[in-house]
Predict the structure.
Amino acid sequence: MAKILVTGGTGYIGSHTVVELQKVGFEVVIVDNLSNSNIEVLNGIEKITGIRPAFENIDCTDYMALDRMFEKYPGIEAIIHFAASKAVGESVEKPLLYYRNNLTSLINLLQLMPIHKVKHFVFSSSCTVYGQPDELPVTENAPIKPALSPYGNTKQICEEIIQDTSHSNPFYRAIILRYFNPIGAHPSAEIGELPNGVPNNLLPYVTQTAAGLRKELKVFGNDYNTPDGTCIRDYINVVDLAKAHVIAVQRLLDEKGEKAVEIFNLGTGTGLSVLDIVNTFERVNGVKVPHSFAPRREGDIEKVWADPTRANTVLGWKAQETVEDTLKSAWTWECRLAKLREEKAANAEE
Ligand code: NAD
Ligand code: WQD
């Protein structure tokens, strides 16, 4: 089966996607500079699939290193491009880091594609491009709103770069996937999310609070115009999300695309509030998540959830996992991390 380049393949969504790609027989080459992931993720992927993917420690902003990588692995047929910096708050403080990393990485890959005869490209975009949509659920035709952070802006600009590049040269075939809020971990607990430092995202904060690593969760705002006053998001299981990439890549390889660039929302179609998540997490896992209300977080969207009809009908992809099982997987993963930390500490003492 085809050889696929996965940039950012040791990261959270990338690692789950590598597993799903290998499960159906794709050969995977991972490129990652390990700026936000750990090389040990390869062990987890190997444990689940029995296959250790090829790995190259390369920074995607390094054009020459990428060029050499394509020479080393001839016959790559498609790229799934996850590699990017993704922390919204950090992007406000270090905008140039975000513009350089996210834009240069994309431009390098797009420039190298025709040179190495790689036609197919899958891009990780985000529901952040919609801002606060005027209508819910939000479809792919909703207008793009001014970005609320440099990170969000990089996703909008990257989408435009892909559109313009494809317009200039019909060689390119791309699928842009707009993720809603990915959560959870592989059911084996061999891979999952590895947040760096204090988590910004809700789920890692919830699991770390339940594990006692954080004192309490601050629920940002309880005076929104929503049933319980807290913000609403569309939380999508990371394995479901990973499977959509396999379908997208196969669609490109089969040349089934109706347009040179296709865009799909990847969400469940259901909106859940922060309190829904906290309460369901406590119920299904039998643990407490101490929490209190805090002021609204700057830049937060009040409510957003996907209309995933296009992905459901055109890709034939649908989110399968329940939020209950997804929240269980997130907790199992946090417990696994706690065990690994204990083992490391014990080894250090010996
Ligand atoms: P992640 O940080 O876990 O994974 C990204 C990986 O890319 C990391 O392993 C990191 O080391 C690597 N990387 C970063 N810059 C690189 C570079 N210049 N060269 C090589 N490797 C580099 O993030 P994730 O949550 O798995 O996100 C994957 C993609 O999905 C990103 O593009 C992100 O913007 C996008 N996305 C994520 C979410 C989310 O909530 N997690 C939502 C929407 C979109
Ligand atoms: C979810 C909800 C918070 C933490 C961000 C990016 C977006 C996308 C996903 C990549 C919100 C609330 C959170 C906490 C809380 N990434 N919350 N206490 O804001 O939807 O999106 O990550 O593209 O671009 O903006 O996700 O997980 O940060 O927050 O109350 O400690 O949880 O206010 O309502 P968000 P999140």
